[in-house]
Structure formats: C-alpha cells, structure tokens
Amino acid sequence: MRQSRHGYTIIELLVVMAVLGILATAAMPLLELTVKRNKERELKQALWEMRRAIDAYKLAYDGNRIAKVSGDNGYPPSLLVLVSGVPDRLAAGQTIFFLRRIPKDPFAPSEASPEQSWGLRSYTSTAEQPKAGENVFDIYSKSEGVGMNGVPYKQW
C-alpha cells in the first residue's frame, strides 16, 4: 500500500522561483519605459498648458484688457502673474486668471518648486540660446534627458 504525499519538492519550488525571477527581470524594462512615457506625457501637457496661458496673456494685452506700460511687449513679467491674475480693464473690478496653478516639470528634482522647475525664455532671447529676462515669452524643461523620440527635453 502506497502513501500519497502532498506538497511540492524543493526542485519544483526552485524551478518556479527561477521562472518568476526571469519574468520579473523581463518586466522591469517595460515598467521603466511606462514610467518614462507617462512623464513625457505630463511634460507635453504642462508645456502646452503654460504656453497657452502665455499666449492668452498676450492676446489680452493686445486687446487692451491689460493696462499697457510704455516699452512693454505684452508678455507676462513672470509665471506667477498667470496664476495671481491681472485687473481686467474692460470689466472693472474683475481679475483675469490664466492658470489655476503652475504645473511642475515632471523631470525636475523633487525639491524644486513649480516656478523654479522651468527654464524661462524672454522675448529678446533666441530659441537656441534661451535666457530669462524682463518677461516670459516661452518656457522649457531644464532636464538634460532625451525623449523617446530622440529630441532633448530642453527642445520640446
């Protein structure tokens, strides 16, 4: 009469552990790729949102909704102005807001504030040599990384 044994042998457990290790090793690059893709999507969305707000500020300035200053070119003096708003000349007592909040660059260091996470380009600087100045004409990522499309994040 035979006794039936229940359970797994040590060899079976080792084989299962080896297979699980191989699967986990193969899944890690896919996970990293997914995280990078999500950060790039966040970066595109943040750049689009911020540039749209800068353009809306310029349109409001050109439409005489914002008080004009001599020698000013109509771009916001800082990113904070887009959030804090400006008085609307056409609707007395009301404020025009262009952003609810300044989004943070997803590739910026965690200790950087949202305002500090972006590189600023003034109206007088070139796209190849962006420099901050008296206004905010454009923004860019300060990250040294390169996107999955082969273009550095600074050039997005």
TrEMBL record:
**Spans through the membrane:** 6-31
Q: Which InterPro entries match?
A: Bac_GSPG_pilin, N_methyl_site, Pilin-like
Kindly state which keywords UniProt assigns to this record, in alphabetical order. Answer: Membrane, Methylation, Transmembrane, Transmembrane helix
Entries under Pfam families matching the protein = N_methyl
* UniProt-listed SUPFAM superfamilies: Pili subunits (SSF54523)
Q: Where is this region: Disordered?
A: 107-126
Keyword Cell inner membrane annotated = no
Claim: Signal is one of the keywords in the record: no
Against NCBIfam families, the record matches this protein to: IV_pilin_GFxxxE
Q: What is this protein called?
A: Type II secretion system protein
